[in-house]
Write a structure and sequence with these properties.
By secondary structure, the chain is mainly β. It has 2 helices and 9 strands; from the N terminus they run H-H-E-E-E-E-E-E-E-E-E. 27% of the residues are buried.
């Protein structure tokens, strides 16, 4: 079992058994695991982040009409299937945060977007592994307040990695 397969199996177990699972009791009854794209090594990226000189604080709207505060940290550029793309990384209270929506949002991936926590690896570089992209809890249950990806993180390219739409 690969590291990613192990991670996914543990996540399925958490969703099914843990008291903090976003799934309702009704959803857990028929739960057979989350849906994922196959592992895509080309979307495991080590990127150089262009740090913003001024760390602007923004209010990111949430799925329930509220807002959460994040700091615009920096941006990075990358290529997906020959197409250029750019995303902004944010800093929050618990580390780095990368909310994004791709060209598949609403059809193959959650319409409001997915999340990642990029890992700093030194010298202005981050590991951004889209294979670990996940749906926010509001994708499963609308009682959760989830930050919505800002316009600057809405991609025109498909990211065929990570978690897919949740089907009950």
């Amino acid at each position: 079992m690969t590291e990613l397969e192990h991670f996914r199996a543990e996540k399925d177990e958490f969703f099914l058994l843990h008291s903090q699972s976003p799934l309702t009791l009704e959803q857990k009854r028929g739960f057979q695991g989350l849906h994922y794209f196959p592992e895509n090594p080309t979307l495991r990226l080590k990127v150089t982040v262009e740090e913003f000189p001024q760390k602007e604080k923004i209010q990111m709207p949430t799925s329930t009409g509220g807002a959460q505060t994040y700091t615009r940290f920096g941006k990075f550029r990358f290529t997906v299937d020959g197409q250029e793309a750019e995303l902004t990384i944010y800093a929050g209270q618990q580390g780095y945060f990368l909310p994004f929506a791709d060209a598949l949002a609403g059809s193959e991936t959650y319409g409001a977007g997915r999340y990642l926590e990029p890992e700093p690896i030194g010298r202005g570089k981050f590991l951004v592994d889209f294979n670990y992209a996940y749906n926010p809890y509001c994708a499963y249950n609308d009682r959760w307040a989830c930050p919505l990806p800002p316009r600057e993180n809405r991609l025109k390219v498909p990211i065929r990695a990570g978690e897919r739409l949740f089907h009950e």
